[in-house]
Amino acid sequence: MEKEPDGVTRSRQMRKFIISEIYSTEQSYLSHMKTLKKTFMDPCINASTSPPLVNKDDIRIIFAHLDDLIKLSDKFVETIETSMDPYEVYDSKLGQVFLDFAEGFEVYKKYAENIQRSRQLLTKKVNQSVFYRRLRNEKRKILDLALVII
């Protein structure tokens, strides 16, 4: 078996490292979004039922597109995982995965366009509402801990 030149070996090692970093970053991002949903969004939704402590319209603004982001990210991580050949990491189809998901990534644009409005409303609600303030204070440690662990 013929030995590869050092430059090719280094390139393959770098490619493997980059692919692994992209995959682990996407896994971490998905985990954070799921934690956000479970820790903050779901309790707000539960509090919007009778008697409502939270306005459903406020939830839609504060957590706009979060469910869509989770669905997309879940499928994206799964597709990255299946595209990674454990025997030939160097021949990953990662570029094609990004091309296949390009249209779906529009949800990130929608999320980003709403983020300022979301933050402003959340700040207002935390200042006005005992429920939001209590939720933030109770759950802050959980979310911060989750971010540190991941």
TrEMBL record:
One GO biological process term is: cell migration
> Gene3D superfamilies annotated for this entry?
Dbl homology (DH) domain (1.20.900.10)
Every copy of the DH domain together lies at 14-150
InterPro entries xref list: DBL_dom_sf (IPR035899), DH_dom (IPR000219)
User: Which cellular component terms (GO) are annotated to the entry?
Assistant: cytoplasm
One GO MF annotation is:
guanyl-nucleotide exchange factor activity
Recorded protein name is Dbl homology domain-containing protein
What is the scientific name of the source organism? Answer: Rhizophagus irregularis (strain DAOM 181602 / DAOM 197198 / MUCL 43194) (Arbuscular mycorrhizal fungus)
